[in-house]
Amino acid sequence: MSKCDLNIDVHHLTRVEGHGDIHVKVKNGKLVEAKWQVVETPRYFEAMVKGLSIDLAPILTARICGICSIGHALASFRAIERAMGVEVPKLAQKLRLLAKHGETLQSHILHVFFLAAPDFMNVGSVLPIVKSHPEVAALAVKLKGLANDMCDLIAGRTTHPVSIAIGGFSSVPKRESLESLRDRIKETLPEIVTTAEFFKTIPMPDFVRETEFVSLRGVNHYPWIGGDLISTDGVVKPENDYLAMTNEYVVDFTTTKFTKLSRESFAAGALARFNNNHHYLYPEAREMAEDLGLRAVNHNPFMNNVAQIVESYHVMLESIDMINELLDDDFSDVRAAFEIKAGKGVGAVEVPRGILYHSYELDDTGVVQKANCIIPTTQNNANIHHDLPELVKLEVSKGRSEEDITKLCEMLVRSYDPCISCSVH
Amino acid sequence: MKYLGLGPQKPKVGVFDFTCCEGCELQLANKETTLVDFLSLMEIVNFREISSDKGDDYEIALIEGSISRADEIERLKKIRERAKVLVAIGTCACFGGINSLKNRYPIDEVNREVYGEMPKETLEVKPVKEYVQVDLAIPGCPINKAEVERIIVDVVTKAEIKFPKYPVCVECKQHINTCLFDLGQFCLGPVTQAGCDAVCTSGKMGCLGCRGPFEAPNFEAFFDIAKEKGFSKDYIKERLSFFNAFSEVKDV
Ligand code: SF4
Ligand code: SF4
Ligand code: SF4
Ligand SMILES: [Fe+2]
Ligand code: NI
Q1: Which of A44, A46, A220, A341 is the most buried (most CB within 10 A)?
Q2: pLDDT single digits (tens) A357-390
Q3: A202 and chain B: CB distance < 8 Å anywhere?
Q4: Which residues, 6+ apart, have CB-to-CB distance to B108 below 8 Å?
């Protein structure tokens, strides 16, 4: 073991959404401190949504996040609909999932190519990659373009959707647009396969820390919207028990809250979903995972990048089948009528970065009395914080330089694809 | 409307975010078909969300988000000193945006609601112009990428920068939408500045005025009609204050 001194201080980590710092101190080869400090300015959404009417609440809470606003809107609508006992028609449920698939693809591709890939290619951003590897940039542009158009078509707008409403949809796409969307997804499948081939040539850093993984529990399908909650440590709870699944608490040194379940922290996200539900992936996506060396239960956080690629393939394949099913429908029932009632409801949705919970208490005039939102990155922040010391100890024992260790710490945080402003909402 | 007086070479641009969802800066990386052309118009020297390069030699600073903590005020002022041109992008930066809903309650109460006994540092939410001079304001929640592209081209080519002088209704009618008022819904389109291509009303969601008032809104007539259609004063007020973009309207 080398007797090195390290003083790592990454102020406002780049290529992540939001503001967070990494602090690491090693003296004489011994770890003194390694912490993940989120310094993002809080926005206080749970206080802001109080006193708002139910039609405005999801419009507000969608704005918790600029990347996964569709997921936030869906969790919010689901919580309100469950509070008032509204049954969303089957067709609308499918369309919602399709919008979510568009967002999952959009967000995963943004992360894998724009935020994570520059590390593996030793550049500062995606911009030099456009020059040095135009064929890689072209993959990103094509996949992300498809995903954005998919969200625009179904949700009316990619960032902050406009056509999802309580009970279903206020407006739905034309059949012809759905047909051409389906054909475009089919045509773009080779791009995601090439993406996987490209990432196969990039080894992920070798770091393993035994972790509890939390996600929705799939029933016959890989899960995205609603259902039971599950962990790799064997915990299973109904959706309404989300508080017992998260045990969220305030921490003094950071503006994010932390969560825990069976251990001091747990992880959510693509890797967590994969670890709990891999058997429900499309066979082609499962093969892709196998080919990329991803096997459940995988405890290497860097493999979240790979899980995102696998999920991207899965959602593209599932979207094609779902559109085919949708086209058999007559589109007559896209929105349930409802009556405003007092009640309390929870909505759990798997958004790109992991499981998201919204919960609201409504009075009988449809005004929000109390709200709670528990964000995937909030859950992951605690896990990142506990990963860091282990990673640093491992790398120090290998005698790695301060520069290398700094980069690995940054890459570790990025591999969770943190949405920091979202986590401090 | 404005000539911002920059040199003929590619302007150096920095993108900075404050209290916000980062949805506006994400728009800058969207619209893949024109992204490469758009980026070739400028040199991005600082854009933390997508790049590790942190240059301080920007001429144009794009500011996203509202201001709600002391360190943000300091950071904003430093950026203002360095930049020749400071552009507020998005409703949060221009008007305070949705974050302003926090200002309805006392700070202590808000803090207790979210953080219990461990309150975090925070201030009343304010738009960027409350602290520094803003040379150009591009509203929208989120900003409309097509509009931003057009404006950046105008800035680079030193053309006149224009915003629509008409309300959202004009764009809405171009889409041949049924008016939401005729469907029993409420909409702020008649008093809101166009430029978003009526994206909300085309999805049958009433406009909430994220772009702020257009040049000549007739509020009184609008409120009268809305009340006639059965929408109460409180109902109208709640929607008018959603993005804090109509703060000059004192009563409904
Ligand atoms: S204006 Fe809207 S989209 Fe832009 S940062 Fe603010 S909340 Fe997000
Ligand atoms: S829906 Fe709104 S924007 Fe469209 S015409 Fe009616 S009032 Fe104007
Ligand atoms: S329709 Fe209204 S709320 Fe929607 S983007 Fe346009 S101005 Fe903003
Ligand atoms: Fe929360
Ligand atoms: Ni987010």
Answers
A1: A44
A2: 999 999 999 999 999 999 999 999 999 999 999 9
A3: no
A4: B119
Angstroms from B116 CA to nearest CA on chain A = 8
Q: Which residue type, as a one-letter code, is found at position A129?
A: I
Would you say residue A2 has pLDDT above 60? no
d(CA A89, CA A84): 15
Which one of B36, B101, B109 has the shortest CB-CB distance to A130? Answer: B36
- Reply yes or no on whether the pLDDT at A205 is more than 80: yes
pTM: 0.96
DSSP code at position A181: H
Does the C-beta of B212 come closer than 6 Å to ligand 1? no
Instruction: Looking at the complex, report in whole angstroms how far the Cα of residue B24 sits from the nearest Cα belonging to chain A.
Output: 7
Residue whose token pair is 């710490």: A409
Q: For residues A417 and A114, is the Cβ–Cβ distance under 8 A? A: no
Give, for B151, the enclosing helix (H) or strand (E). Answer: helix B145-156
Q: Of the CATH numbers 1.10.645.10, 2.60.40.420, 1.10.3430.10, 1.10.10.60, which one belongs to the domain with range A45-424?
A: 1.10.645.10
Residues A249-308 have pLDDT tens digits of: 999 999 999 999 999 999 999 999 999 999 999 999 999 999 999 999 999 999 999 999
Q: Do B27 and A159 touch (CB under 8 A)?
A: yes
pLDDT tens profile A12-69: 998 888 889 999 999 999 999 999 999 999 999 999 999 999 999 999 999 999 999 9
Closest CA to A260 of A380, A121, A134, A391: A380
